[in-house]
Every structure is written in C-alpha cells, then in structure tokens.
Design brief:
Elements lengths: L1 E6 L5 H9 L4 E7 L3 H11 L2 E3 L2 H5 L5 E4 L6 H10 L3 E5 L6 H13 L4 E4 L6 H11 L6 E9 L11 H17 L3 E9 L8 E8 L3 E8 L6 E8 L2 E6 L4 E5 L4 E3 L7 H15 L7 H20 L3 E2 L3
Helix pairs in contact: 4-5, 5-9, 6-7, 7-9
Bound molecules: nicotinamide-adenine-dinucleotide.
Nicotinamide-adenine-dinucleotide (NAD) binds next to loops.
Length: 312
C-alpha cells in the first residue's frame, strides 16, 4: 500500500484527493490546507486525516505527494516534500520562475526522488491517440500545430495571466507532439479587461523549422479547446473537451476510436505506477521547466514587442 498525501485542497486539489481515494493499492494518508474548515470537511468526506500545516503531514512519512497550492508556493512546498523523502507530483506550471523550477529539479536529483509535473493534457485520451498517429507517420512530416484554448474568465485566477494559467498547456502539448523543443517565440497579447494579459497569440518555432501557434483568451463567452496538426500527408483535428480526433487526407475522412477517460485519473495512475516501478515519470522537471521558460518568454515578447530566443 503506497501512502499518499495532497497539499492544497482547492479547486484542483479536490480532484487529486477524490481520485487517490478511489485508487487501488493507494492509501490517502492525509490532506493539508491552511483553510481549516475546508480541509476538515474533505478529510471527513474521504475518511482521511486533515492538516493545516503540511509539514506535520510530511513528518508522518509519505511515499508520494501531490502539490496543488498556488504556483508561487511550488518551490517551497516541493523542496520540503522532497527533503521529507516523498516522491512529488507538482501541478503545472512547475513554478513561477525558472530559478525556482531549477531548485525543485536539483532537490529531487539530490534526494533521488521522482519528480513529475502536472501537464494534464498529455493524459487526455485524444492527445495520447494523436501522439500515436503522428509516431506511426499517418500524417507524414508535421509542419504546423495550432491550438485554440479560449473561454470565460475564472475569477479564482488572480496571480497570473492567461499565458501561464492556460497557454502553458498547449505550449507543452505542441512541444510533446513534435518531440522537439521551442527555440524562438513571438507573442502579441494584451490586458484589456483584467490586470494580467487576458488574450494572447503565441507563435513558436521549434527546432529551427517547425511551427506552433497558440491562441488563448479569457474573453470568449464559451469554452473551446481544439488543436489542428498539419502534416504533408494529411490533417488531424483534435477536440480536447470531447476527446475526439478526426483525420483528413486526400482520400479519406476518418474518426479515431477513443475511449473517453478522465485525464487526471490517467495522470495519477501513471505517477503511482512509476513510483511502483522506480521509473522516471514524464513530463519530468526539465519538461516542466521548458514549458515555463517558453511561457515566460512569450510574456517578455509581447511586453517588449520582440522575438525571443530560447536558449537551454
Ligand atoms: N492541471 C490543470 O489543469 C490545473 C487546473 C487548475 C489549477 N492548476 C494548478 O494547481 C495549482 C492550484 O490551483 P487551484 O486552481 O486549485 O487554486 P486554489 O486557489 O483553488 O487552491 C489552492 C489551495 O491551496 C491552499 N494553500 C495556500 N497556501 C497553502 C499552504 N501554505 N499550505 C497548504 N495549503 C495552502 C489554499 O488554501 C487553497 O485551498 C496552481 O499551481 C494551478 O496552476 C492546474
């Protein structure tokens, strides 16, 4: 039985708690949140222990923790959890700065702990299917991937803009589907309704040749989560929400058979399997750091109206 804890029981933390509580071979040993009422109520609901100080929970000795506190706290909480000998799944983005991301990565390596970053869309059944399709070469060489992730503003998000809150999802997915790193970014964005940027168009060059285009905003009254991958041999249209993939080529229109499943459940089961097998999970710390670096470069690019080079 693996002993698991969750630190941060807010909007996303609740989902981690629910899924771990239902996972075979996993004991949800505790949950921690500074909101005393919230954590007590959830602990009663899921039959586990409540903590308002996550350090007390870590002191119990846990095999693994999910870190789902606000992004600016990821470094502090993740490095303390690693020092307490727990394997760590930290939510996206890995941290609020590249320096803080490096500190988490270094701590995990130094303590020989497994570190995973919560880029949940990699575990979306439609993305898993499209990755297979691309690797099988069904679309030929991919030359362009573009995404649309728009919808109404969520008033809960107060500490970052639309690029770090939701753009980072597609920045990671485009790099993942290509299997390549971003080396140049140019972004146009603005903060027309909110204090942080609430709309952005980000153009990325990957491996000096391949195109990635991310369109995000908090202005559109309805939610859209779509991706288009253009290959020399055909085009794929993916819908993240409906978990569908449709392929078009010169002779055919085909719809992929996909079993719908909750992406976070796939992600947490995979994390637990990696701990059992002692294998380094993906996305790992450096994958998370790259997605963060590109996101921060996109913010610089729109503020300075210039092309930004991404160096390793
Ligand atoms: N993967 C995804 O799709 C996804 C979706 C939403 C949020 N997130 C990420 O998850 C993280 C949390 O976001 P959220 O939307 O759940 O935010 P939230 O504000 O709803 O929840 C954060 C929780 O952390 C608690 N907290 C703050 N300081 C704490 C401390 N010192 N110890 C214990 N608990 C503390 C707060 O009381 C709150 O309940 C962010 O990094 C965000 O980017 C990821």
């Amino acid at each position: 039985m693996l002993k698991v804890g969750v630190i941060g029981a807010g909007a996303m933390g609740k989902n981690h708690i629910r899924i771990y509580s239902e996972m075979p071979g996993v004991e949800l040993a505790g949950i921690a949140d500074i909101d005393r009422e919230l954590v007590k109520e959830l602990a009663e609901q899921y039959g586990t222990r409540a903590f308002t100080d996550y350090r007390e929970m870590l002191a119990m000795g846990l095999d693994a923790v999910s870190i789902v506190v606000p992004t600016k706290m990821h470094r502090q909480v993740a490095t303390e959890a690693i020092e307490a000998k727990a394997h760590v799944l930290v939510e996206k983005p890995i941290a609020d700065t590249v320096e803080n991301a490096d500190a988490i990565i270094k701590a995990a390596a130094a303590s020989n702990r497994l570190l995973m970053v919560g880029h949940i869309e990699r575990f979306n059944p439609a993305v898993i299917k499209l990755k297979e399709i691309i690797e099988e070469g069904l679309l030929g060489k991919i030359v362009s991937i573009s995404t649309t992730r728009v919808g109404p503003y969520n008033p809960r998000i107060r500490d970052v803009g639309v690029i770090l809150d939701i753009g980072v999802h597609d920045i990671d997915i485009i790099s993942y589907l290509y299997g390549k790193q971003v080396n140049q970014v140019y972004a146009v964005a603005g903060a027309d309704i909110h204090s942080f940027e609430d709309h952005a168009t980000i153009h990325m060059r990957l491996d000096h040749e391949f195109s990635g285009l991310v369109d995000v905003n908090w202005l559109t009254p309805h939610k859209v989560r779509k991706l288009t991958a253009v290959g020399v041999g055909g085009v794929a249209y993916l819908d993240y929400l409906n978990q569908t993939v449709e392929l078009h080529d010169s002779g055919w229109v085909r719809k992929a058979k996909i079993e719908n499943r909750e992406p976070l459940r796939n992600e947490l089961e995979y994390f637990i399997d990696c701990i059992r097998n002692g294998t380094q999970p993906k996305p790992c710390g450096t994958d998370g750091k790259h997605a963060l670096k590109v996101s921060l470069a996109a913010i610089n690019s729109y503020k300075e109206a210039k092309l930004i080079e991404i160096t390793e």
